[in-house]
Give the backbone structure.
Amino acid sequence: MSYDIAHIKSLVEPNRVHRDVYVDPEIFELELKRIWGRAWIYAGHESQIKNPGDTYALTIGREPIVMARAKDGSLHVLYNRCAHKGAKVASEGCGHSAGFRCPYHGWTYHHDGRLQALPARAGYADTGLDLENPAFHMQPVAQFESYRGFIFVCFDKSAPDLKTFLGDVAATLDNMADRSPEGEVEVAGPPLRYMHDNNWKMFIENLNDAMHPMIAHGSVGSATRRLAAKMPEGATPSAEAEIIFPFGSSYQFFDDLGVTGLPNGHGYMGGKKSIHTSYSDIPGYYDSMVASYGEEKTQEILSQNRHNSIFYPSFTAKDAVQAVRVVRPIAVNKTIVETWHFRLKGAPEDMLKRTILYSRLINSNASMVGPDDWDCYARMQEALPSHSTPWVDMRRGFGKDVTEGDHRTSFGTSDLSFRNQYHAWLDYMTRETVA
Ligand code: FES
Ligand SMILES: [Fe+2]
């Protein structure tokens, strides 16, 4: 069927959404144009293209792009499409080169996209081919901006700037970078990358779904409680136990964290408190922070502790763990999720080890937690198309939000975060001008 605005509006009610938003391939294609084609989307981190000549190619929805650092140190984000006959120029992932060279007929480009040369050029004499003409260049994306080293792209040239788009969720990236004594993070190694059998929104929703850990991760919760009960009084838990224990927390614990919804579908849980608050100190870290910032500022930085922040639609971040989880929609029921880990520049290497340990215990497909979530997503994707009721419920805490400026808050297990995301979804999907 074909979707007109009225029909799209009928899919989202104040406290429930129609299953078609998760299972209809036509809705998925519209999302790529209207959400992924309009919002600022996370592409990667500047440290992935640290040195002149470094490149990183990726695909966002149906758009192959490549980030590059040119000889003069400038950053560029281009469509990864040859100006000749359209071949994808750079292979996916990282590279390093003097410039781009198309593997088909050998047109070469500078890292800023300008056409550099092409073989047997005499054959183009008097045809209008001109190296200086932008029509023969690799094309830049409409907009890109870097915030604290995190590079975002936007395929809509009329979209407002990145800072306006991010609003208060930017504080999560600030905090992640501020937790480095040098004020900068850098990518550490390749990501964990898994294909999930579910719609992209299920992952984004789950990250602030505080009603599922007690059930979906119940086996981890009960095992950690048994382990904790066996520990001698006053004993320090191992680094592993410290990370796993909070997954056995109560409904009350998550309620107390609170949840915040922001404009454009962004949001976060926690703020002063999260499942990471009671991690023990890593020797040397606090001192290195105080040496850079002084005592008061260090305490202020370390007191921000958001649980998961949602950068709708493309990624989630944990400031206190220095990891981001990036969503790459492939099909209505296929999503790549990448987990990237960051080193706090100037901090002891043990800080990075804890970040990696967290991912190994929680995000990896060999972990005790991640597979519980993927199984639930796949179950939803499987059962939603059935001839049962078409509605997906999001009414928990409905009517109890507290509004202050552009922040809406509620108790942590409220469905506020989902309703906030669908508010943005509807706005993107029903705006008349299609990018
Ligand atoms: S398609 Fe790239 S050189 Fe021909
Ligand atoms: Fe989970």
